[in-house]
Amino acid sequence: MYTSDRFIDDQVHGMKGDNVGVWMIMPGNAYKHSAGGPLMKDINSQSTGDQELYWYMNSGHVRTEPWRFGLLWPHASHAMRFTSSTRPPSADVDMSFFDSLNIDGYVPDSGRGSVSGTATGMKGSAEAVVHWFNQDAQYWTKASRGKFTSPLMKPGTYMTRLYRNKFPVANTSVTITAGGKATQDIVATDSEPSVIWRIGEFDGQPSELKNGDKIQRLHPSDSRMASRGGEFTVGSSQTKDFPMALFSKIGGNATVNFDLAPDQLGGVVLRIGTTLSLKGGRPSVKINEWEEADPGAPISYHHQGNPTLIDSRGVTRGAYRGFGDVYSWEVPASELKTGQNTLVIGVIGKGDADFLSANYIIDAVELQGKGGPKNDTSSYTSRYQRRFQ
């Protein structure tokens, strides 16, 4: 069994036995030079054979950006603690003595700055996470009732990103100076298109879909998993009946049956959000007899000028967050009909066998058009758009 926690939540993790525990403690900015951001997860421990304890900063697992380098200590420091108790120790570790060691490349607290502000436009009770990053470092915090203050940050200009749960909803930038206390607000930029129907929520996670509540602890082949693919009927099926992932060589397609009124045939847009793909997997779509062309393999981040796809396993080891690609297609009115219509969603791509074949994890699927209620989500005019880069 493997365990993992979001970087933003990972302050202490460990393993325990009879009256003994061994713990990794990551105080403050321990993940400052990692890759992947606050919502990234990596392996903390595994117990498939021997008990093994890890602390990964740059493993390459589902990596969505180039590695960060530089002085890793002490503002990316960690400690290992052995205890005679099974209770996790405190995450508070005093590293202030490093300020007096005159280490080349080390920036003391006095040489850092911070930014405070308000995150607005967040609807409902969704978690608001604010992320600052550039090629050298990254920091994050959670907004409390909309208010946030960053950790102490090295001077520089940072991209600022706001997440609703795990779905990015705003970008801006801020410049940090030594000893400075900047002020900057950030506003979620979601629009509210008219939606005929939606399956799932655009929140960057598949937890409400079929098997989405199990994927972080069970392999897709586990007998406790529900069948993959299948049929979904809008108006009678439940969200949990729609598969959280589709594979090119196992499990089949997902079929959606839906009805349209006579005045809903024009101006229809199909939108599919994904959270992670493997081997270039992307959606194929067919509505009735209309079949759209291949949207093209996912665009990747660029490393030293070369495009780089995520090349490590995701869904088969409990990871579901990657580039967050969103695809949309304008559906010709002539291809739709009053009454029942059928959408078939498959996978374009090959890869290896079974669960290591080309695949992608689904965030949500929606049909935008006339007559539907307004919902909280983002709209796009392009067929394909990156959300996590």
From TrEMBL:
Species assigned in the record: Colletotrichum abscissum
UniProt KW keywords: Carbohydrate metabolism, Cell wall biogenesis/degradation, Disulfide bond, Lyase, Polysaccharide degradation, Secreted, Signal
Similarity-based family: Belongs to the polysaccharide lyase 4 family.
Keyword Signal: yes
Stated name of the protein: rhamnogalacturonan endolyase
E.C. designation(s): 4.2.2.23
Domain Rhamnogalacturonan lyase: from-to ranges: 111-183, 196-367
SUPFAM superfamilies tied to this protein: Galactose mutarotase-like, Galactose-binding domain-like, Starch-binding domain-like
